[in-house]
């Protein structure tokens, strides 16, 4: 068992349970004879919303009424709706098949989107000036969480397959793992986005995942496995790499999943799975902030999973993946047609983005943030994903998720002309 106290920051360590929230959790599993005089629950008889019918793909319906409708509009335990928690734990067991000893000390909390869980986890682990291990290019939302702490970023090199274990080993070699308790400059965790990474679209091979996990064990690091695109990867399913969570034998992986990409971004549901000691700290933070994720979203999702079962959910995931894979292929064709010779890029293995390097351009910032808009094309400059903001970046990110497919060709044509104009300046 790891000493989790080593990883938890002072503020998070000082959080104490909210008695009202703890009583809410007890009430959720109490017998019908219990008389609830403890919590300030609004009386559901006064809720103006009485019933709801939700049409589901395929022609079926979810109907909410009576006690179920009241539950969807009432306070819930902070960890989440008990029925949904059970469904999601069962899903994790089915999909990831974690080690038994690790699973016995694993817990889960449902969050307001996975970024809410990620934010609270990072705030649990970092303090001003903390050392943080990240990839060369990182989801900009993660950087927005970390940057106010003015962390010391240690950047691990990546390529078209994702993080390079050799670079991680070289970066970690500057510390002695035997001095981890006395060396305050040593990082305490690795943040990694292994599947369909945002912005690069890389899918980290299983061999690299195992080497990275072994290095984290050697240096006693936690792993924040931010995996919102796990259910949005392309290629043959039998060849897909296992998650870091599935490899975890020591209880050092905190895993972040999301429904935003496969069910709906607006329902704002994610879930964090990992060691109970760390989940407890996230729950305590939620008790004094959001209280719990949306009740309506949780009940609605639980009813959907009840209707679908794991098999139905995974069938839906396959349809989502096929949809985005086809869009990816069409954007790649357009990019190859118009950007060959001007740029280089790899075909993304998952996610929603094409990561493009522009030849001969040290920075894409002004081109994207100023001149592209006048050409009626919007992209993201690579600098937004760079831990070190003082450096230029020759990359840009193109999303293939929502733009009309018939506009892919004209978009890449406009981008090509924009780049040519920029290189002449």
What does this protein look like?
The chain is α+β, with helices and mostly antiparallel strands. The chain folds into two domains: 4-29 and 38-50 and 62-310, Type I PLP-dependent aspartate aminotransferase-like (Major domain) (Aspartate Aminotransferase, domain 2, 3-Layer(aba) Sandwich), CATH 3.40.640; 323-424, Aspartate Aminotransferase, domain 1 (Alpha-Beta Complex). 40% of the residues lie in helices and 16% in strands. The strands form five sheets. Strands 3-11-10-9-8 form a five-stranded mixed beta sheet, with helices on both faces. A four-stranded antiparallel beta sheet has the order 12-13-15-14, covered by helices on one side. Helix 6 crosses helix 11, helix 8 (165-172) runs parallel beside helix 9 (206-218) and helix 12 crosses helix 14 (408-424). The radius of gyration is 23 Å and the shape is globular. The relative contact order is 0.13.
Write the layout of secondary structure elements.
Elements (H helix, E strand, L loop, with lengths): L9 H5 L4 H10 L22 E5 L5 E5 H7 L9 H15 L3 H4 L2 E6 L2 H12 L5 E5 L4 H7 L5 E5 L1 E2 L2 E2 L1 H8 L16 E4 L13 H13 L3 E5 L17 H4 L5 E6 L11 E6 H12 L7 H45 L3 E3 L7 E6 L6 H10 L5 E2 L13 E5 L8 H17 L1
Parallel strand pairs: 4-5, 8-9, 9-10
Antiparallel strand pairs: 1-2, 3-11, 6-7, 10-11, 12-13, 13-15, 14-15
Helix pairs in contact: 3-12, 4-12, 6-7, 6-11, 8-9, 12-14
């Amino acid at each position: 068992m790891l000493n989790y106290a080593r990883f938890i920051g002072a503020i998070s360590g000082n959080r104490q349970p909210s008695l009202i929230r703890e009583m809410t959790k007890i009430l959720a599993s109490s017998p019908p004879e219990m008389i609830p005089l403890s919590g300030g629950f609004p009386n559901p008889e006064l809720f103006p919303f009485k019933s709801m019918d939700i049409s589901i793909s395929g022609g079926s319906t979810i109907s909410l009424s009576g006690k179920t409708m009241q539950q969807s509009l009432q306070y819930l335990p902070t960890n989440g709706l008990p029925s949904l928690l059970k469904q999601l734990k069962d899903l994790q067991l089915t999909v990831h098949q974690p080690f038994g000893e690790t699973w016995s000390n694993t817990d889960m909390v449902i969050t307001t989107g996975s970024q809410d869980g990620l934010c609270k986890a990072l705030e649990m682990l970092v303090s001003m000036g903390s050392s943080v291990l990240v990839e060369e290019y990182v989801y900009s939302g993660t950087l927005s969480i970390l940057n106010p702490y003015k962390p010391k970023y240690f950047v691990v090199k990546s390529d078209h397959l994702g993080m390079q274990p050799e670079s991680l080993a070289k970066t970690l070699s500057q510390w002695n793992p035997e001095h981890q308790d006395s060396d305050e400059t040593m990082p305490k965790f690795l943040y990694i986005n292994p599947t369909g990474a945002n912005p690069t679209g890389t899918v980290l091979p299983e061999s690299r995942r195992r080497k990275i996990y072994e290095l984290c064990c050697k240096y006693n690091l936690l792993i924040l496995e931010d995996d919102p695109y796990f259910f949005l990867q392309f290629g043959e399913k039998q060849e897909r790499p296992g998650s870091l969570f599935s490899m975890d034998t020591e209880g050092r992986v905190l895993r972040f999943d999301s429904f935003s990409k496969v069910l709906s971004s607006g329902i704002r549901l994610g879930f964090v799975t990992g060691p109970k000691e760390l989940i407890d700290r996230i729950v305590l933070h939620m008790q004094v902030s959001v209280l719990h994720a949306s009740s309506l979203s949780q009940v609605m999702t639980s009813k959907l999973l009840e209707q679908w079962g794991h098999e139905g959910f995974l069938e839906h995931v396959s349809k989502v993946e096929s949809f985005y894979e086809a869009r990816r292929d069409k954007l790649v064709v357009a990019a190859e047609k118009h950007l060959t010779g001007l740029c280089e890029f790899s075909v993304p293995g998952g996610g929603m983005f094409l990561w493009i390097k522009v030849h001969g351009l040290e920075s894409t910032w002004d081109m994207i943030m100023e001149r592209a808009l006048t050409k009626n094309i919007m992209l993201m400059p690579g600098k937004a994903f760079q831990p070190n903001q003082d450096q230029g970046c020759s990359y840009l990110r193109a999303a293939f998720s929502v733009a009309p497919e018939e506009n892919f060709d004209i978009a890449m044509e406009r981008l090509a002309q924009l780049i040519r104009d920029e290189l002449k300046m």
